[in-house]
Amino acid sequence: MKLNNAVIHSFKVAKVFRENQEKSNSIDFSTSGEKLISCSEDDQIVLYDCEKGTQTRTVNSKKYGVDHIRFTHSSMTAIHSSTKVDDTIRYLSLHDNKYLRYFPGHTKKVTSLNISPIDDTFISGSLDKTLRLWDLRSPNCQGVMHLQGKPIAAFDPEGLIFAAGVNSESIKLYDLRSFDKGPFVTFMLNQEKECEWTGLKFSKDGKTILISTNGSIIRLIDAFHGTPLQTFTGYSNNKGIPIEASFSPDSQYIFSGSTDGRVHVWNADSGFKVCVLNGDHQNPVQCVQFNPKYMMMVSACTNLAFWLPSIEEE
After folding, report:
1. Is-contact 81 74, C-beta < 8 A?
2. Collapsing DSSP states into helix, strand and coil, what is residue 8?
3. Window from 29-38, 55-64, 153-162 with minimum mean pLDDT
4. For the whole model, what pTM was predicted?
């Protein structure tokens, strides 16, 4: 089944999970698309089976809190940032709920955490104005970049370069093999006046970069030249929350939550709004992602919803 406007319009909520007392702040699919992990402000980590549409495990992180949860290349381990005690990144075995390793270094809240698509490298950004490169196998930081403002970061789909968004106005591209030489290119954009950048994502084809904000604007830029391509608006964010924007796996569509509880969808090439999907979320939808392998989407406020298309394949 291919994604097109008719299929997007047909998406309906197939299942709702009401495990959390507070809002979900982060979700992530395993590479296979078979598993989903979520974390929320009530310090819960929940694991889901996407094929069966079931919740499989709940892990509490009461002591350290949890945000920016990410699967490693195994769907039974994850890394996450802390919201209490300190700003250490933690590597968790979901199999037996034990921490395998700690990654200390950041001195302020972690704002960005991403794992390489090809190996055990991961990158973190923090309000301490540093980006740090790590390897899951070592607690020692592999490299630090000192920046002029709050950074967010993302790996390209081939895991060869990473992008750093700094101060809501510039995107710096680094070669992973020679990051210590500094960025090989910097794109300067108009600094956001009304909001801050809160997330970066490369499209699966590596051609574009999506910039999420804590306002009601999403930007799409050319990954090679930094040219602004689209600005997506018309969704509400009156709470200043970091609403996640995501690509469909074919890079053709952009999805975003909103504070009114709905999911907004745009065509990435034309910039036109395709539709607004109503899943009966009672609270702001901060997290929206499309499954990398299966025809399903997930959105989360306090509740988490699995969406499936309601039209049959022709």
Report:
1. no
2. helix
3. 55-64
4. 0.95
